[in-house]
Structure to design on (465 residues):
């Protein structure tokens, strides 16, 4: 049996990690040289690493630990459920109480008409479900030709073959034969990086218009669905211009295209409502959920499905499912997470306390010479870095060089802030308090100052021509 423990020194754990553990989205050789950061415990919004550093987690893990770390109720529920029924499946005309109760609770919280849940263990799996579900839906309705799905460049919908195809990350498509046939990508509504001289609203309309153009190009009778995150997360926290979503909704309605809102990040309070669709005023037929559903305490995801689609799918055998669909321990833990979110009024806290405090703090960072703007909705935000604010110029260095430097300075100052290209990303636990946001902002400001000094030293404060 392994004798590896939390108390071993970093220098001993790192080579063991490098020897046997292949990390996701990582150049493992580089990591082996550098040594992985080892997180040993966490409480509230702070992580502790194997050197004893107290790191403020400005990313809530991977956008998921909405209720914060270390909630003993979650552990107690998991232990109780494991003793009672650690596993049973939901195939073959069988169910169990955690799955029944969680599906009911999700249906209660979801927007009107979204009353059915198909469970998965992750956002990727749920989006794979969605591909098969929308195609099956149209086939069952006698319109099998409606099989194409439109998504967006720089969208993130997961890393499996199906969900990675839905996503619009070129660097992911470059590996492993993605995208699968029948998936199309239109441009994203990223005004800061791509809007040029257009007003945000005119730009939003033009990017929404691309959906109509694509539908007409493919043929209205060929398109099953459009999938999008209400606010792109992994693509760089891109809050679309106000004009964008109403126009997308109009187009989906006009051409009878199912709208799939990928709520994996936006769901469960992150934008100040239960779902990002409510914040952005959209009416999807299907919502993808994961992450904040359990605050990351257990792997669970799913698709929330509207009555009409569920009715059509329900009339046939849907040959799809996962061993862990509705896993009883994960479901019980998710249910407890939803109880905590409600009983502690955490979404009201986001709206009245944490989001306004984050906005106030980020407004101070807007003054920093490197910060080109602030993009924020609720508790998700990004700061695009730029060598020249007025023109929203990009750096002459390879995209991501400056963002990576800044991320490293954040780590050095005990702050987790991720970078997407040269944008810095913030998505802390929803329960963060104003005084903790002050710590976040102070550390971020110091990291930005150090990055600026480094860029000056290395003559990297130059704009791309
Ligand atoms: N959709 C979105 C919007 C996401 O942000 C993610 C994960 N970052 C996924 C899907 C995939 O979820 P998972 O990693 O749980 O498969």
């Amino acid at each position: 049996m392994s004798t590896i423990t939390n108390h071993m020194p970093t220098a001993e754990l790192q080579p063991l990690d490098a020897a046997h553990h292949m990390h996701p989205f990582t150049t493992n050789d580089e990591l082996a040289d550098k040594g992985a950061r080892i997180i040993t415990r966490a409480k509230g919004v702070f992580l502790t690493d194997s050197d004893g550093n107290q790191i403020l987690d400005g990313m809530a893990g991977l956008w998921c630990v909405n209720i914060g770390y270390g909630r003993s109720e979650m552990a107690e529920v998991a232990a109780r459920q494991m003793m009672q029924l650690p596993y049973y499946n939901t195939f073959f005309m069988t169910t169990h109480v955690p799955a029944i109760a969680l599906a009911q609770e999700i249906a209660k919280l979801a927007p009107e008409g979204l009353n059915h849940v198909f469970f998965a263990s992750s956002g990727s799996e749920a989006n794979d479900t969605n591909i098969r579900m929308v195609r099956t839906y149209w086939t069952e309705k006698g319109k099998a030709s409606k099989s194409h799905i439109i998504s967006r460049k720089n969208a993130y919908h997961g890393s499996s073959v199906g969900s990675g195809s839905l996503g619009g990350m070129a660097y992911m498509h470059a590996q492993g034969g993605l995208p699968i046939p029948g998936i199309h990508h239109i441009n994203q509504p990223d005004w800061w990086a791509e809007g040029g001289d257009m007003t945000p609203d005119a730009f939003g309309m033009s990017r929404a218009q691309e959906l109509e153009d694509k539908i007409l190009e493919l043929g209205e009778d060929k398109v099953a669905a459009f999938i999008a995150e209400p606010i792109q997360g992994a693509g760089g926290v891109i809050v679309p211009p106000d004009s964008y979503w109403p126009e997308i909704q109009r187009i989906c309605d006009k051409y009878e295209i199912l709208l799939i809102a990928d709520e994996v990040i936006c769901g469960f309070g992150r934008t100040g409502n239960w779902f990002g669709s409510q914040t952005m005023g959209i009416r999807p037929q299907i919502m993808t959920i994961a992450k904040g559903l359990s605050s990351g305490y257990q792997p669970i995801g799913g698709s929330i499905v509207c009555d009409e689609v569920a009715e059509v799918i329900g009339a046939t055998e849907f040959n799809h499912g996962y061993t862990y669909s509705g896993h009883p321990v994960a479901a019980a833990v998710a249910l407890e997470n939803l109880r905590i979110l409600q009983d502690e009024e955490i979404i009201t806290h986001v709206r009245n306390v944490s989001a306004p405090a984050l906005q106030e703090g980020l407004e101070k960072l807007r003054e920093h010479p490197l910060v080109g703007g602030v993009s924020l909705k609720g508790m998700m935000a990004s700061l695009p870095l730029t060598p020249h604010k007025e023109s929203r110029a990009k750096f002459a260095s390879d995209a991501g060089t400056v963002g990576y430097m800044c991320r490293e300075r954040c780590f050095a100052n005990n702050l987790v802030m991720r970078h997407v290209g040269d944008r810095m990303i913030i998505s802390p636990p929803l329960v963060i308090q104003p005084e903790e946001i002050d710590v976040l902002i102070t550390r971020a400001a110091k990291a930005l100052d150090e990055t600026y000094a480094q860029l000056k030293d290395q003559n990297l404060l130059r704009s791309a021509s």
